[in-house]
Amino acid sequence: MDFEAHRSTITLVCVAAYAAACLAVGVWAMRRTHDSRDFFVAGRDLGIVVSSIAIFSSTLSGFGFVGGPGLVYRMGMTSVWLVLTSVTGYVLTFALLGKRLRLIAEARDTVSLPDAVAARYGSETTRALTALAIVLGVLGYLATQILAMATVLRDVLSAAPVFGEVSLVSCVAISCAVLAFYCVAGGIIASVYTDLFQGSIMVVAAILVFLAAQQSVEGGFAGMSTALLADDPESIGPWGSLGMIASLSWFFLFLLGTSGQPHVITKLMMIRAPRDAKRVLPLTLLGYTLSALLWVSVGLAMRALVVQGAHPELAHADMAAPLFLQHYAHPLLAGIVFAGLFAAIMSTADAFLNIGVAAVVHDFPRAWRGRVLRDELFWARVGTVGMTIVAAGFALYSHYANARLVALLGVFGAATFAAALVPVVSIGFNWKRATPLAAIAAIAVSLVINLGIELLGMRLPWGIHGGVVAMLISLALFFGISFAQAPPRIAPDIEAAMDL
User: Is 462 part of any domain?
Assistant: First the structure.
């Protein structure tokens, strides 16, 4: 069979088959979702392998597999600092929160991160502000997933002769319709079990794509380095085109910031037993490291191919991965990776929708009314549809208003989470001196700074990311106010979890 002649058909069939499989998982998960605890935290019954794959998959997906190569294509080695830092960030996250968060979840029967924060500080205001930070960060991250999914789908459909050119808006609508059904039906259970399937495949596929990238440029990675060095020496240097200060700011943001990402740390609440956390970490690191090979290799290969004149300049950097797969990977491999990307994006979008909807329908009512909504599972599903629509609008606005890169939308979401939650959760769950007022001030001020920098379009000197400034100020307030106040009283069960 001439695979090359049927490349677009093979890709389309793979994506359609994967989408159908994801929908089937959603229907299967719906039968296992009996209440809001199942919907939000999978009944706290995830095994080691499922938890490991779900954690690293939720970090990569559209952010890593579409946005990552786009960043490497645009900025060179600057983007690689995100990969290196996230590995260290995982270790720090598990050290700070691996057991404690799971023990608090069991002690207080929590179904969301704001539940755990309210239990730690004994304050409903901290719950409300944590929920607000999650909703704002989710909009940036979820927009990343929707835009990445639509970008992949548009490339797949446009390559098939039967469809012709398909608009990004149409692909956003199709993607959101599939996503909404999948998320409404299965909640977080659908997400983690789709992660198990696609994460396993994507690790293998990333290795194969890495080899394909090496073969696509004459001379392999040495040839890429030579071509990029002649075109732009800074891009292939250790700091990339953004320079040392900007790269180090990203390093700092993601080193500490990983432990403040609710889509990651919430999954620590879902592990079957607290002792399993030490077994989950090595598998998470291995899966992430191997999968990240696609991030780095494809971006470098596409930039080198353009510099050498073997491929036209990309209209948009986020097209680096889709175009590489369409033109330089074996058709079967391209089909599998495209399908895996689609599934990865969908399961990660589900994870973001899940924590965002939990904040809206579970935590805000508890903070304001002192009780949860009646038929919380029903309202969780209604909220899922509403948040999908809002995030889709945000994604389209960001793309058409300023041609925002997928990964940079993700970085905004990550920065929002990091500045608001690293002091309150990562430090506060390990430091008994932290007070409720310090937590409230840290979250509130970080949100004002992050949103202010984003909405005003401020560009800081030396390429420093605004999220770093927000996190530094948030940390300073958190420590300063805590030291200025008397030590707080902590509930005995929470204190026992912190002592371990």
Answer: no
Look at residues 355, 439, 402, 334 and name the one whose alpha carbon lies nearest to residue 121: 439
Residue 471 in contact with residue 256, Cβ under 8 Å? Answer: yes
Say what angle helices 331-358 and 320-328 make with each other, to 10 degrees. Answer: 150
C-alpha 427/C-alpha 479 separation (Å) is 10
pLDDT given at position 444: 94
Residue-wise pLDDT for 175-200, tens only, equals 888 878 877 877 777 777 777 777 77
Q: What is the mean pLDDT of the chain?
A: 82
Helix locations, 309-363, DSSP H? 320-328, 331-358
- Beta carbons within 10 angstroms of residue 232's beta carbon: 15
Beta bridge partners of 46: 271
Burial code of 55-88, b = ≥16 C-beta within 10 A, e = fewer?
Answer: bbbbbbbbbbbbbbbbbbbbbbbbbbbbbbbbbe
CATH number of residue 162's parent domain: 1.20.1730.10
Name the domain count of the chain. Answer: 1
| Residue 455, in any domain of the structure | no
Specify burial of residue 316 (Cβ count, 10 A radius: 0-12, 13-18, 19+).
middle
DSSP 17-52: HHHHHHHHHHHHHHHH--SHHHHHHGGG-B-HHHHH
Q: Using an 8 Å Cβ cutoff, are 380 and 39 in contact?
A: yes
Please report, for residues 50, 77, 136, 356, the alpha-carbon distance to residue 187 in angstroms, rounded to integers and kept in the order given. 16, 37, 20, 12
Task: Say what the pLDDT of residue 43 is.
Answer: 63
Contact 110, 104 (CB under 8 A): yes
Q: What is the largest CA-CA distance in the chain?
A: 75
* Domain span holding position 160: 4-406
Q: Which residues of the chain have pLDDT under 50?
A: 405-407
